[in-house]
Amino acid sequence: MCGPMAPRPVGPQTHSDPHASDPSMSTSSSPTTVPEARARIDEINERVVELLAERQAIVDDLCELKADADRTVRDPEREAELLAHVRSVADEAGLPPTLAETLFEEILAHSVERQRRQRADGAAGPSAEESSAEELSAEEPAEKATGAVSTCGAQAQAG
């Protein structure tokens, strides 16, 4: 198993403004003071962190699903699709696509590392954990250079 699952909201997620009734905190108007701008940025930062935590919980679920299906942690085709989509959304939103891509490359790297550690923690015996640690240090440079898919922990596949 890949570890305990964190609770997350159930049902459709809405992105309504929790401060819609407070005109000073509305997202539809521009801040007029430095403290107001900083407060809005702080709120956005909190939402970003909450969304990252929600994403991480889903990555934990995905780790278990992949392990049950005897699939590898990395899926370079999916990663390329995700990065292309993120670049497109960023461009439409007026954000530099390279910024969004760089951020999501880091998020993906964290997700891959987290899944590998979870698989190693769920593997039987200390030798599986040791081999997973060796795999982490040995594979990363090759994966970045070649995009090769790797296996990890007790879920290794032939071929």
TrEMBL record:
<feature type="compositionally biased region" description="Low complexity">
    <location>
        <begin position="21"/>
        <end position="35"/>
    </location>
</feature>
<feature type="region of interest" description="Disordered">
    <location>
        <begin position="114"/>
        <end position="159"/>
    </location>
</feature>
<dbReference type="InterPro" id="IPR036263">
    <property type="entry name" value="Chorismate_II_sf"/>
</dbReference>
<protein>
    <recommendedName>
        <fullName>chorismate mutase</fullName>
        <ecNumber>5.4.99.5</ecNumber>
    </recommendedName>
</protein>
<feature type="compositionally biased region" description="Polar residues">
    <location>
        <begin position="148"/>
        <end position="159"/>
    </location>
</feature>
<feature type="domain" description="Chorismate mutase">
    <location>
        <begin position="28"/>
        <end position="119"/>
    </location>
</feature>
<dbReference type="InterPro" id="IPR036979">
    <property type="entry name" value="CM_dom_sf"/>
</dbReference>
<dbReference type="GO" id="GO:0004106">
    <property type="term" value="F:chorismate mutase activity"/>
</dbReference>
<dbReference type="InterPro" id="IPR051331">
    <property type="entry name" value="Chorismate_mutase-related"/>
</dbReference>
<dbReference type="InterPro" id="IPR002701">
    <property type="entry name" value="CM_II_prokaryot"/>
</dbReference>
<dbReference type="GO" id="GO:0046417">
    <property type="term" value="P:chorismate metabolic process"/>
</dbReference>
<dbReference type="GO" id="GO:0009697">
    <property type="term" value="P:salicylic acid biosynthetic process"/>
</dbReference>
<feature type="region of interest" description="Disordered">
    <location>
        <begin position="1"/>
        <end position="39"/>
    </location>
</feature>
<feature type="compositionally biased region" description="Pro residues">
    <location>
        <begin position="1"/>
        <end position="10"/>
    </location>
</feature>
<keyword id="KW-0413">Isomerase</keyword>
<dbReference type="Pfam" id="PF01817">
    <property type="entry name" value="CM_2"/>
</dbReference>
<feature type="compositionally biased region" description="Low complexity">
    <location>
        <begin position="121"/>
        <end position="130"/>
    </location>
</feature>
<feature type="compositionally biased region" description="Acidic residues">
    <location>
        <begin position="131"/>
        <end position="140"/>
    </location>
</feature>
